[in-house]
């Protein structure tokens, strides 16, 4: 299982092997610099809204953190997540919050989990609605997307099921090597579900609006990125393709979405008659603008304001 990430990287290598770099280089050289600059600028409000959303979710669960430190933790964790399948490393934010705010890990996890779920749900909704609105080509993707989303949703429901989680925690007592963790884990589970209950109030609509606004900035940046290239593609096709690609990138068979994302772009843009060279031009810009630049910002946050974790977990509820 630990080598499963090779699948996506192998797909990425195959795509690169079949890429005409000379043709793609010519396409990138002709890109509209002003539109590309606008794409980069749109990332600022997009990520600021993400950070404000996460900070608001933390506050709803009783965790206070300054905006500056929230920003460095958020971006620094994104830097870590790049090297993990399905960006699972973003959960590191919870460990950092536990250390700095002296709260139980279970409570710190609430904001991280809900923060991620909000983006997944909205990307899924936009992808499905977009497919339904397309007059040709993409309808055949509806059932695979719905099937993938159903499996993902089922897994999440199982993980958020209190009875099932309690059953799993009870098993720790029966495993000699793990039974010493039973008390800590049980306390964190209580803190997590208590924190989830605290989010069940009208104020949760504000983080949802932050998510929608952030998505709008990000998807507009993607549309401008596509328009900067010599590719005649409708804005709705870009939005649908990027939304579905973001969902596919969650499948833990690669790192940083490499391979799965580019294969999705090639297929979906191809349905609209966009040539492979043009699609790869967009894919390379996507990697540079929306992955490398954001990860560079995360790396700077990591080194300028180091993120630490404590060696041993605190007593739950502390």
Question: How far apart are the termini?
Answer: 36 Å
How many helices?
13
Question: Could you give a short account of the major beta sheet?
Answer: none
Report the strand count. 0
Shape: globular
The averaged pLDDT comes out at: 82
Element order: H for helix, E for strand:
HHHHHHHHHHHHH
Count of domains: 1
Kindly state the percentage of residues in helix: over 70%
Amount of beta strand: under 5%
Give the structural class. Answer: mainly alpha
Global Rg = 21 Å
> Which regions contain 5 or more consecutive residues with pLDDT less than 50?
311-318
Structure description:
The chain has 318 residues and is mostly helical. It has one domain. 72% of the residues lie in helices and 0% in strands. α2 crosses α13 (276-304) and α11 (235-248) packs antiparallel against α12 (260-271). The model is unreliable at 311-318 (pLDDT under 50).
List the helices and strands and how they pair.
Layout: H1 6-17, H2 21-29, H3 33-60, H4 67-81, H5 92-101, H6 105-133, H7 142-159, H8 162-174, H9 182-198, H10 205-227, H11 235-248, H12 260-271, H13 276-304
How do you describe this structure in short?
This protein has 318 residues and is mostly helical. The protein has helices at residues 6-17, 21-29, 33-60, 67-81, 92-101, 105-133, 142-159, 162-174, 182-198, 205-227, 235-248, 260-271, 276-304.
What are the defining features of this structure?
318 residues, mainly alpha, 0% strand
């Amino acid at each position: 299982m630990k080598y499963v990430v090779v699948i996506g990287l192998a797909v990425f290598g195959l795509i690169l092997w079949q890429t005409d770099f000379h043709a793609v280089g010519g396409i990138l050289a002709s890109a509209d610099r002003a539109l590309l600059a606008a794409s980069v600028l749109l990332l600022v409000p997009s990520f600021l809204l993400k950070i404000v959303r996460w900070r608001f979710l933390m506050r709803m669960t009783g965790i206070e953190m300054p905006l500056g430190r929230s920003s460095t933790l958020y971006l620094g964790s994104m830097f870590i997540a790049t090297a993990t399948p399905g960006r699972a490393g973003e959960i590191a934010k919870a460990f950092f919050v536990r250390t700095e705010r002296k709260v139980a890990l279970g409570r710190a996890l609430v904001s991280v989990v809900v923060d991620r779920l909000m983006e997944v749900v909205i990307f899924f909704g936009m992808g499905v609605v977009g497919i339904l609105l397309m007059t040709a080509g993409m309808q055949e993707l509806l059932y695979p997307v719905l099937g993938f989303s159903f499996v993902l949703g089922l897994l999440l429901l199982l993980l958020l099921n209190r009875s099932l989680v309690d059953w799993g925690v009870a098993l720790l007592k029966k495993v000699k090597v793990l039974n010493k963790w039973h008390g800590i884990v049980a306390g964190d589970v209580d803190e997590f579900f208590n924190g989830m209950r605290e989010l069940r109030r009208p104020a949760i609509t504000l983080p949802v609006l932050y998510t929608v606004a952030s998505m709008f900035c990000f998807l507009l940046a993607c549309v401008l990125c596509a328009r900067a290239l010599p590719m005649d593609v409708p804005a709705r096709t870009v939005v649908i393709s990027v939304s579905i690609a973001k969902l596919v990138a969650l499948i833990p068979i690669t790192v940083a979405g490499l391979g799965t994302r580019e294969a999705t772009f090639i297929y979906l843009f191809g349905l609209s008659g966009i040539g492979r060279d043009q699609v790869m031009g967009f894919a390379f810009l996507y990697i540079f603008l929306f992955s490398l630049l954001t990860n560079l910002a995360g790396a700077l946050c990591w080194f300028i304001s180091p993120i630490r974790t404590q060696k041993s977990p605190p007593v739950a509820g502390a």
